[in-house]
Amino acid sequence: MDKNKRNSVIRYLVLFIVFVIVAGLLYYFFTSASEVEYTAPVSPVVTIKPERRIIDEGISVTGYIEPEAMIPVVPFVSGTVEQYNIEAGDTIGKGDVIAVIDKRPYELQLKQAEAQVKGLEAAFGRVSALRESGGATAQDYDTLSAQLDAARAQLELAELQLSYADVTAPVSGTVIQSLSSEGSIGSSENPMAIIADLDNLVVNMKLGEKYFHTISENREGLSVTVSSPDGYTSPAEIISVAPFVDPTSKTFLVKVKLEEPEGFVPGMFIRAEVVWKSDEYLTLPLTVRKLDGSVYALSEDSNTAEYIDIESLAEDTSYFAIPDSYEGRDFIIRGQNGLLPGEKVRVTGVER
């Protein structure tokens, strides 16, 4: 065997020996390594027991305060406004003079009417005397009598128009808009002020059509409470319920009147709570529900989370009612969002 061939055999032999050693080491490593077991982490949770409380079934809607009636003050005669006695916010009584329109044209009309009546009365007196003596015909008498009646009616009209120059408030209330001023022109086409009774305030609420029958059929038992953002509250009486649903907005109108209007003003934003049923239930906070609406409680061994397909009997803005059969159970109120049915849990606290 020559030298090159012998060297080649030695190299192969060395490689084989190295391979055998590496294979042996790997076999020893994998067969001697201890088996590692995976232990799933235990989720920490906080629990709560259901409690009995009153739940008001109803709906919350928003709206605006309005006067029950807004009365425009319109002058019955035209002319220059010589006096304007009010400002927005003034409280006035029925019959108070809020403005005076230039009276001179109407005073002249009154004098003309008075003079005409006096002249016709004198003429009528002479004709009446002549008729008795046969010096005047019945036609003369009837004609003058009709003219006198017309003149007297004209006199009454002149007196009425002169009285209308003093523009008075038709109702008592508060001036919410003053729409004129001294020197402006008053006419029956433009109101001079808007008056509202702030002791009679209403809210026109628009409710969705799905509540139409509930509201209509339970009108006598409804309870309405109106509240403002700055803390004023008042019970409200239902004045009317619209007999139809607006096909465009799919809503119907419910009008309520505030029973304690102090603190409320027209235009104020409010929230109204309409309640048609109030009863005591076994309840849980709405926060018990997961984001998908499911509910979890502790299982009987208290080590795992149990999914419960629970029926909500009623609910308000904070709580929902559950069947009495769940009384005493521990429901998960915190830590539930990442849970799966049967997952192990660890109770870290109890909410009361």
Tell me about this structure.
- The chain is α+β, with helices and mostly antiparallel strands and 352 residues long.
- 26% of the residues lie in helices and 36% in strands.
- The chain folds into four domains: 1-37; 44-52 and 280-351, conserved putative lor/sdh protein from methanococcus maripaludis s2 fold (Beta Barrel), CATH 2.40.420; 60-68 and 196-279, Efflux pump adaptor protein, beta barrel domain (Elongation Factor Tu (Ef-tu), domain 3), CATH 2.40.30; 76-194, OB fold (Dihydrolipoamide Acetyltransferase, E2P).
- The chain has four helices and 20 strands.
- It has a six-stranded antiparallel barrel with strand order 2-11-14-13-12-15.
- β12 and β13 form a beta hairpin.
- α2 (104-133) packs antiparallel against α3 (138-164).
- The radius of gyration is 46 Å and the shape is elongated.
- The N and C termini lie far apart (95 Å).
